[in-house]
């Protein structure tokens, strides 16, 4: 039987544990993966959205388990990196969804 993973109050406690413990002895099934945003956000924007769209974004963010503003940043990043041409994506969406 594997050991229960201990709780830590500080990062120093966690680091000391990881440096000395044999992690193969511990049960990690109850742990939840976390993602951290480490880059500084030094620019803000003001964006006017229809209430229904903002509510849809909030619902999707809640499903993923992250704050809606982080979800929006992630989506913009994903579109920029994955599609490399946001204009093309916008044109395809606007044709399908009939955006003005």
Structural description of this entry:
The protein has one domain. Helices cover 52% and strands 4% of the residues. It has 4 helices and 2 strands. 0% of the residues are buried. The mean pLDDT is 80.
Keywords:
elongated, mainly alpha, 100 residues, two-stranded parallel ribbon
Short description:
With 100 residues, this protein is mainly alpha-helical. It has helices at residues 11-20, 51-64, 68-83, 86-97, and strands at residues 3-4, 26-27.
The poorly predicted ranges are: none
> Could you tell me the radius of gyration in angstroms?
20 Å
Number of domains: 1
Helix content: 40-55%
Task: Describe the sheet with the most strands.
Answer: 2 strands, parallel
Beta-strand content estimate: under 5%
Based on the structure, what is the oligomeric state of the protein chains? single chain
Q: How many strand segments? A: 2
Instruction: Quote the distance from N terminus to C terminus.
Output: 61 Å
Order of helices and strands: EHEHHH
Number of DSSP helical runs: 4
Q: What structural class do the secondary elements suggest?
A: mainly alpha
Mean pLDDT value: 80
Strand order of the largest sheet: 1-2
Shape: elongated
């Amino acid at each position: 039987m594997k050991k229960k993973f201990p709780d830590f109050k500080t990062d120093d406690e966690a680091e000391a544990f990881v440096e000395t413990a044999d992690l193969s002895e511990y049960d990690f099934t109850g742990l939840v993966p976390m993602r951290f945003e480490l880059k500084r956000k030094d620019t803000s924007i003001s964006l006017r959205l229809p209430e229904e769209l903002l509510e849809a974004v909030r619902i999707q963010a809640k499903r993923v388990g992250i704050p809606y503003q982080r979800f929006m940043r992630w989506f913009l990043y994903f579109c920029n990196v994955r599609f490399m041409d946001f204009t093309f994506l916008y044109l395809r969406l606007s044709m399908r969804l009939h955006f003005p």
